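Feature request, filed as a ticket because there's no other form

It would be nice if the structure record came with a short human-readable summary line next to the C-alpha cells. Right now we just get the raw output. Example of a typical job, pasted below so the devs can see what we mean:
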Amino acid sequence: MSTDRHTLLQACDALLQPERFKDYGPNGLQVEGRQEVRRLVSGVTASLALIEAAIAAGADAILVHHGLFWRGQDGRVTGWMKQRLQRLLAHDISLLAYHLPLDAHPEWGNNAQLGRVLGFEGGAPCFGEQNLGWMAPLEGLDVPALAQRVEAALGRSVTSVPGDGRALRRVAWCTGGAQGYFEAAIAAGADAFITGEISEPQAHYAREMGVAYLAAGHHATERYGAPALAGEVARQLGVPHEFIDIDNPA
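Raw output as currently delivered:
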C-alpha cells in the first residue's frame, strides 16, 4: 500500500489545523521528497541520527515534532543543517514537522498523549499560551508518589520541587520546555505541575507558592504525540508506519 505526499500532508493538516497557531517555525512540509509514500517514519526531532535510521528503515517520509527550521535562526546551509538536508535530499525523503499544533491536539497531541501515559483522566486544556496547558483532577497521591508514577511511566528520573506538602487535587502539565507556564498553572488552580524542563526561577516559585514542580525531560515528555499522529494518519491512508525513538537525556 502507498499514498502520495500531497495526500499525506492533507491528512496531517486536516487533523492538526496548523493555520490556527502562531508558532516558532513553519508547520507542515519542510523538505519535499518523492511523490509516492510507501513507508512513514515518525520521531521527536529531525536529528541526523533519526534521518539515518529512517533511511535504513526505507522511509519515504518522516514526521517529527521538532523540525529543521525555526524563527530567528541563521539561514545558512552549513554544518549540521547541511548534513541533515544533504541526507534527506540524497534519499528523496520528505520531512513533515508540526510543533504547537501537535502539542495541542485533543487526542493525538503531546499533551493529550502524556496525560494518557500518566493515567490522568478527565484532563482538558485550560491555561498557558494558546491554551496549550492541560489540567486533570487527581486523588490519592502525594508528591513523592506522583513523582514515582511519572518516573515509572517515562523510564527516567524526575527533578522534583515538592511545594508545601498540600493534598494534590489538581495536576497540570505541558510537555517540553514549558517551564514558563508554571505561574499560569498556579493561577488556574494546580497543586502540581509537570513539564520537561526546569529553570532557576521555578524552584523558588514552587517553594513560595506551595505548588509542586516536576521536570521529567523535554524529550521524554514529547515522544508520544508524533507516533500517535503518524499512526492515525498511516491507518487512514493504509501505509506502514514505524516510530524510531532516538535517545536524548535532555
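Something like this underneath would help us a lot:
The chain has a mean pLDDT of 97.
The radius of gyration is 19 Å.
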